[in-house]
Amino acid sequence: MAFIETGLPGLIVYEPRVFGDDRGYFFESYNESVFAEQGLEMRFVQDNQARSVYGVVRGLHFQKPPYAQTKLIRAIEGSILDVVVDCRKDSPTFGKTYSIELSAENKKQLLVPRGFAHGYSVISPFAEVMYKCDAFYNKESEGGVLFNDPGLSIDWKVPADKMILSEKDKLYPVFADVDHCFTLHS
Question: Would you name the residues annotated as active-site residues?
Fold first, then answer.
């Protein structure tokens, strides 16, 4: 099993080992002891799953402390462009973005620690996304960053006229106006 550093502290790409033969394939999408061996110790308490069509952009979301979440994200059907922004005010990569294609085919997963805004766009005809969270959802602690903040220059790999967004996601503030309540160790 491979854990790949991204250059943003704590943000890890996980590439599980896949065993395939003429019947199909098998892999462990998560094994607590394997993650713990890498120093990645968290207790997941909630699994979420979403299905979306091409052009859907979800994000950029976070939950404020004390309800902040670490997430382990993967696409179980189709392809998404997964995007994060480091919102930890004392991080050396504060304000930096990272994106990666997660797909049912490549089976890569992204471990997003607390303190990142997270979102994704659907770049295949449809996609089904599943992610684990280490804290329960809390509506009152919702926060976010505007998906098209010009200061972040995120390329969602979807033309603007094809994007499908929730009204809420269109109203988040730009990164510079967000109350940055996260630190590296919060």
Answer: 61, 131
Q: What is the mean pLDDT of the chain?
A: 95
CB atoms within 10 A of CB 155: 10
21 - beta bridge partners? 24
Question: What letter represents residue 140's amino acid?
Answer: E
Phi, psi of 176 (to 5 degrees): -60, -25
The secondary structure of the chain, three-state, reads CEEEECCCCCCEEEECCCEEECCEEECCCCCHHHHHHCCCCCCCCEEEEEEEECCEEEEEEEECCCCCCCEEEEEEECEEEEEEEECECCCCCCCCEEEEEEECCCCCEEEECCCEEEEEEECCCEEEEEEEECCCCCHHHEEECCCCCCCCCCCCCCCHHHCECCCHHHCCCCHHHCCCCECCCC
pTM recorded for the entire structure: 0.95
pLDDT in the model for residue 1: 52
Cβ(103)–Cβ(96) below 8 Å:
no
Percentage of residues of the chain with pLDDT beyond 70: 99
